[in-house]
Amino acid sequence: MTDDSHRFTSMYDECRQRVWAYVVSRAGRQVADEVVSETFAIAWRRLDDVPSPALPWLLGVARNVLRDTIRAEARRDALAAELRSWTEGDVADEVAERMGVLRALASLPDDDREILVLVAWQGLSPRDAARVVGCSATAFRVRLHRARKRLKQAMQAAEPGQERHGQERHGQEPRGGEPQGQESRPRVRNLSEEWS
Amino acid sequence: MNPIDELRAARPAHLGDTPVDERTRAAELAYAMARPRERRRRAVARPVWGLGLAGAAAALTAAAVVVVNGTGGGGAPPTSAAAPPASSAPHKVRLPARAILLAAAEKAADQPEATAAYWHTVSVSRSVYTVEDGGYQVVDRQRSEMWTPRAIGGEQWGRDQNLGAVPATDEDRAAWERAGSPSRLTVQVPGKKLEPMTLSTSPGKPSTRHTPLVDGDKVFWLGRNVTMKDLRELPSDPDRLKAWLLRSYGGHSTESDEPMSSDTWLFQVSVGLISDMPVTPEVRGAAFRMLAALDGVDVTEDVTDAEGRSGTAVALKEPFRVNGGAVLRSRLIFDAATGRALATETVVVEPGGLQADLRPGAVWNSTTVLESGWTDTRG
């Protein structure tokens, strides 16, 4: 492997899941892989520009990719499904509190949620997080302060006992192909056949 | 506890630091690194095949072999389950292969196209079988015709006809005649289905079928199921086309879960695209350019397809192993004058498994394309 591809692969291994988690928290799992692969494709192309540590830079790129490639409406729908999935399922007592926090997070405005996730889950310093969302460090601190206050209020308001949401099922793409050789002709199978 | 700490503790498990699965990793790395790097300083040396055909031909006289390293134009996607990461040692690439493919790309992109209500293809598929008592081999032939609607919501129509089995070679014909020229042949079907199959030497009746499009709009399989719109809007830039296709690469074969390198996978999928899918001429040209940029592409001129037509074959040097142990290589035979596909073939490199009875170099199966184009009438 060349130095470049070695460096790129290490960066990928170090940051990929963090970038993925960020995109999931912004737009849900459905689009996350697509945005992540595009982000790393850009990182490879612009490897000379990638600073160290790379994570804040990568998150900033992912943020732009998300904005440029995923329609706002689709993002909202996918994110709503994602947020529901965080807070569904059997709630044992010990996790009820965690669920409450996540519900509170889900109820916040998009911008607040992004700021909180960057700091709490991605472990970014306010300065790095400010770079990701494209504002000054000072402005970021103010926004973080407000977001934290709103999270606290939402946590106090959200007590356990909310309705449970049904499980989201995402369609699997039908996939054809009997293992009978290199069938070059296109194959399309009905979903029902695939799963019967 | 401060709300940030509580939030940190409440992070859903799947958003934690679990490692990425190996297939996704291989696919994403390949996807990213398939693209050329943007250098801060502009690269000084251009690869020879970037000069265009005249330049390439001129360069040919100067040096028959060029040395390409993995990060050049096109690049070698590393890491996959099947192939170890590409070494940093330069690959030697014979220039003529690229020049031939680039010429085909230009011809393909220049073909006229007028779309109509249906994309229509006629093809004949052939597979080799070993006759149970006698040990000789026969080729079973299936003609299939397909009409795929340009508009969504319609149905895909097909007409299939068995053309009958014929002895594979002159030697096989002699063996068949010695056996009394039987019209019904019991053949072995190795693999999961152990029951023998009976083939007939005479053609069957054509049967017509029609089915609604899968999901209402999916018409072909191109690494994944795609709509007519997807196909018509494929990127006509080779790098972007490659990136588009590689998004569906999962580290394994197009036919099974067997590991397969991204280049092999890409080759298989693009051969399908070139051979009979309703893509624009520019995209077909881009697919040839994409093949030209792959490492280890082999081009053989003056080969004959199963219909007896002469053409040029392109294959990957690196063969692939399939379930059961055979090592195979697939190749595309095209008409160099038009960039149109004539046939796709699977050639045995090392016999084994389903192809245990075949000799190295034998064509195990093939699909010849007799017609492909747009039509308003469904025959």
Quickly describe the structure:
With 196 residues, chain A is mainly alpha-helical. Chain A has helices at 3-27, 29-45, 55-69, 72-86, 93-107, 110-120, 126-133, 137-157, 191-195. Chain B: InterPro entries: CU044_5270-like.
Question: What is this structure's SSE topology?
Answer:
The complex is a heterodimer of chains A (196) and B (379).
Chain A (H helix, E strand, L loop, with lengths): L2 H25 L1 H17 L9 H15 L2 H15 L6 H15 L2 H11 L5 H8 L3 H21 L33 H5 L1
Helix pairs in contact in A: 1-2, 1-3, 1-4, 2-3, 3-7, 4-5, 5-8, 6-8, 7-8
Chain B lengths: L2 H7 L12 H12 L19 H10 L2 E4 L22 E4 H16 L7 E13 L6 E13 L5 E13 L2 H9 L5 E4 L9 E4 L6 E6 L5 E4 L3 E3 H5 L5 H9 L15 H15 L4 H13 L3 E8 L5 E7 L3 E2 L5 E9 L4 E11 L12 E13 L4
Antiparallel strand pairs in B: 1-2, 3-4, 3-16, 4-5, 5-8, 6-7, 9-10, 11-12, 12-14, 13-14, 14-15, 15-16
Characterise this structure.
The complex is a heterodimer of chains A (196) and B (379). Chain A is an all-alpha fold and 196 residues long. Chain A folds into 2 domains: 1-86, Rna Polymerase Sigma Factor, Chain: A (Orthogonal Bundle); 87-160, Arc Repressor Mutant, subunit A (Orthogonal Bundle), CATH 1.10.10. Chain A is 67% helix and 0% strand. With 379 residues, chain B is α+β, with helices and mostly antiparallel strands. Chain B has a domain at 208-375. In chain B, the strands form 4 sheets. In chain B, strands 3, 4, 5, 8, 11, 12, 13, 14, 15 and 16 form a 10-stranded antiparallel sheet that branches. Chain B has a two-stranded antiparallel sheet with strand order 1-2. The radius of gyration of chain B is 23 Å and the shape is globular. Chain B starts with a helix and ends with a strand.
